[in-house]
Amino acid sequence: MSETKALITPPGADKVLARKRPAAPARSARQRVGRVLLYVMLIAAAIAMLIPFFWMVMSSLKDANSVFSVPIRWLPDVFVWQNYVEIWQESGLLTWIKNTLILSVGVTLLQVTTGSFAAYGFSRIRFPGRDALFLLYIATIAVPWQSYMIPQFIMLSNAGLANTLWSILLLQAFGAFGVFLMKQFYETVPEELSEAARLDGLSEYGIWARIMLPLSVPAIASLSLLTFVNTWNDFLGPLIYLRDPSLWTMQLGLNNFVSSLYDVNFGVLFAGLVISVVPIAIVFLLGQRYFVEGIATSGLKG
Amino acid sequence: MTTTAERSASSAAAPPPRRRSRLRLRNTLLGWSFILPNFIGFVLLTLIPVVTVFYMSLTNWNIFGSSQFLGLDNFIKLAGDKSFHTAFLNTLYFAVMHIPLTIVVSLGLAMLLNSKLRGVAFFRTAAFFPYITSIVAIALVWNLLFSPQYGPVNQVLGFLGIQSPPGWLTSSDWAMPAVVVVETWRRMGYYMVLFLAGLQTVPRELHEAARTDGANVVQRFFNVTLPALRPTMFFVTVMLTIESLKVLDLIIVLTDGGPGQSTTVIAQFIWTKGFEENQFGYASAASVVLFALCLVVTIIQFAWNKRRED
Amino acid sequence: MKRTTLAIAGVAVAALALTGCSGSGGTASGGDADTLTVSGWSLSSTPEFQLLADGFEAQHDGVTVKLVEYDPTDYNTLVTADLAAGKGPDVITQKEVKYLPTFQEGGQLLDVSDVKLPDGISGTDSYTVDGTVYATPYRQDSWVLYYNKDLFEQAGVDQPDGSWTWDDYVAAADALKAGFEDAGVDATPIYQHGWQSTVQGFAAAQTDSSVLDGDYGYLTEYYERVLELQSNGDQVPFNTVTANKLTYQGEFGKQSAALMPMGSWFTATLVAQQASGEADDFEWGIAPIPQADASTTGTDATPVTFGDPTGFGVNANVSDEKADLAKDFLEYAASEDAAKALAGIGITPALLTDAVTKAYFDVEGTPQDELSEFAFSTHDTYPENPTSPDTAAIQNILNDLHSAVLSGSQDIDSAIADAEDRVANEIG
């Protein structure tokens, strides 16, 4: 193990390195102006990103008939907190959140574990037919879901899985996305590391678990986050499979709660959507540092 | 595929043939043992239904079981279907604008937000917000921004001296560029996340070395960052291409394919033919064409990537 | 590679075997002979299903009606999926007529020609294919003109009296606009929703044309009128309607418009929204939709309008015993008893008798004038969607025409020519 360890710089080491760098010379006036300009730009961009969300929050405080209007109104005339009260008291919000959470966490776990495991097979072990198999994985992404959604539904329905949370869990968990993402990331890990580990007597499984996984924290973090968000916000999948109100997810329950034949109560809808976006935003805010938490790989290039 | 277990295990001295075939068997078993847990789920849940699409495309399947084998009739009909031509060209038009724009914007964003700026967590989260904001809210606010008479976009253009600014989403010529802008804006946070992860694999030492050699920012970007980012770039390009060619949900809420057919794309054609007009066989044939289009582009990308790799 | 090809072939066979065996019969309710499953949507805000279920249970001892709830916007997709998997409901509610041929051609609907229907019920033609009846109507909405009496008074313009042609409608809109300006009222004379039916439905019905003809010259006059109303400010432009995602409930309910052509289902919504405060408190009425010429105007004539029925079909896979029970349900839903009950919650039943009309206007909050009663009960309603396997595809082509013309990106003549080309090219 000694050799392997020496090749991997532990997390946080780059901070130590950074500290050891000679202190930056005092910033020139030009640099300072540049910095201010950068912030002005970033803040302007952030506003551009957040405007629709802002409008959504404001609309969640309007009554049904005031949400859409000419000209558009950014702030409600009267703040209608009732929308939130209504969702909280009259809908199955807690059930929906519970189901959505089960699915999002379950799918993310399955996708990350099976995906990163399979990716190792695809990126580090050479065997006949491997590349063709991989292309097959990618190729299935290219078939639009709506074209095979009914055959898939018939199959899962015959297997007794329709109208259970299992259907969505299984449906989302084995996609090619995670395999592809992790494979690409593994390819940036220098082979010398695995070599050294092999000399140390680690099996391929060991290399995957003790070298590859720890080294791919940013990839795992982004895969987890994107999978989580996609499952959380998925509408069509739960719509087709989950009929029983006790199984509804956030998006599905909300849509059912606010709409009738010719009519959607947009005020309540946006209140629900605000409630559903907040957890994701928090997960992102807390998790985003892992995207950039790389472990320096000691300058080895495979 | 820099180095592999096989190459490393056998490169020192070429083993005798029997040992080589045993090694091959061992590697095959080993490889499959990694892939299998995902593969079982993949075959049962994705591959089997996908294969049925190919069969359906050769029939006039009506979804309730009965179907008639038609051979290539659906494809011949597609070749002469003007609406499909329109959808096909619109899809290409969208993809050709959307893919490069999104790569440039999201990579730029990732590089900007990969630094140790104050408040970087906030800016990263803000960049991701378009992806998680309700698509209805996005459609409304962008429609407003693009409004021909009162929208800020055209007010700025008017201020810049442009006499008759376009009607954007209400004009058949400008609706697609407008859709591209909104979709890029919506997706850039998503791809930024992937690029952020990819940027962590760029060895810092290389940057340092290049800096000492006197390379400027642009040179360092092209000679250090981009080559090291190649696996991620490949991933993003392939995914982005496929997703662009399959684009649907944003267009539905933003323009619903209009005005006229100016923003109708293949995915919408498939949905309409299948679920609104009950021609599932015909819709499947359109899916197969879309699939073939994606596959051709993907294989080109694979080959390109391989060549760059070796 | 060879092995991969073989593997794929194997998978294909397995796939076909798996999906192939789905056609096997069966329904959601299974073998329980006394339980009838009926599909519906948005049960909490659409009380008609529970009402019919309760009424039927009251007449049949020991029978339970179980409502199966589906999403309202994707109702047809979901019912299709369930039927394809052999898990459909016993009674299949026909939400939109244009999808009936899908179910019928797919062999999912039982022949219900032997269900006895009351005389004078409308909408039955929509469910008849080659002389065989596949569903029966219980509800028949038709398009009328809603108007805001308060806004008319404020503008000092005469209210609709049932004698309007489209020219009178345009004249009234002009007068309203001038009146609003003088009185300082912030409203537009007309709100017309973005749907294609708001133009094409009237055009087809009042020129005695059918979307199946493949000849769409009859649309010209109707589009020209709307384009002019849009450009002179009598009506909210189509681009604004779609861009701002305006809702008709909001535009009429918040008094942004004085006139609104709309389906009769809006009565129930408006009454409920005025009671809850979501809509403003104002006096309103229902008038017959303006006519193409004077021959069908006035309260002694029958105005021509359009609308599609809503009905019930029976799942072809139910047992014989269950089929009889299901047919009883269809008969009940079409009966006068059911019609009165439906009218009592603001629904427009397919059967309109004097008693039904009385029940409709007994609802608190409905307008009490004679013209409203006339508009509700007297009309010659042509189907918007003729029953044909081509209807859905043709309506999609005409919808493209609609957005191209009203957005201003194509002139009416070339848009009609394009649509005619496409119908000739793509249909059949």
TrEMBL record, chain A:
UniProt topology in membrane: Multi-pass membrane protein
Entry annotated with the keyword Transport: yes
Highest taxon listed in the record's lineage: Bacteria
Signal peptide start-end: none
Transmembrane segments: 36-58, 101-122, 134-154, 166-186, 207-229, 264-286
Domain ABC transmembrane type-1, first and last residues per copy: 97-287
Keywords recorded for this protein, A-Z: Cell membrane, Membrane, Transmembrane, Transmembrane helix, Transport
Principal location class: membrane
PANTHER family: ABC TRANSPORTER PERMEASE PROTEIN MG189-RELATED (PTHR43744:SF12), ABC TRANSPORTER PERMEASE PROTEIN MG189-RELATED-RELATED (PTHR43744)
Name of the protein in its database record: Carbohydrate ABC transporter permease
Organism: Paramicrobacterium chengjingii
TrEMBL record, chain B:
Record's keyword annotation contains Ubl conjugation: no
A Pfam family: BPD_transp_1
Transmembrane intervals: 29-56, 92-113, 125-145, 280-304
Keywords of this entry: Cell membrane, Membrane, Transmembrane, Transmembrane helix, Transport
Membrane topology: Multi-pass membrane protein
Cross-referenced SUPFAM superfamilies: MetI-like
Subcellular location field: Cell membrane
Main localization category: membrane
Statement: the UniProt record of this protein carries the keyword Transmembrane helix: yes
InterPro entries: ABC_transporter_permease, MetI-like, MetI-like_sf
Superkingdom in the source lineage: Bacteria
Residue ranges constituting the ABC transmembrane type-1 domain according to the UniProt record: 88-301
Family according to the record: Belongs to the binding-protein-dependent transport system permease family.
PANTHER family: ABC TRANSPORTER PERMEASE PROTEIN (PTHR30193), INNER MEMBRANE ABC TRANSPORTER PERMEASE PROTEIN YCJO (PTHR30193:SF37)
Protein name (Swiss-Prot/TrEMBL): Sugar ABC transporter permease
The species this protein was found in: Paramicrobacterium chengjingii
Lineage: Bacteria, Bacillati, Actinomycetota, Actinomycetes, Micrococcales
Automatic annotation (TrEMBL), chain C:
Coiled-coil regions, chain positions: none
Keyword set, alphabetical order: Signal, Transport
Location relative to the cell: Cell envelope
Signal peptide (UniProt feature, chain positions): 1-17
InterPro entries recorded: Bact_solute-bd_prot1, SBP
The organism's place on the tree of life at top rank: Bacteria
PROSITE patterns per UniProt: PROKAR_LIPOPROTEIN
Predominant place of localization: other
Family classification: Belongs to the bacterial solute-binding protein 1 family.
PANTHER family linked to this entry: ARABINOSE-BINDING PROTEIN-RELATED, SN-GLYCEROL-3-PHOSPHATE-BINDING PERIPLASMIC PROTEIN UGPB
Protein name (Swiss-Prot/TrEMBL): Extracellular solute-binding protein
Organism: Paramicrobacterium chengjingii
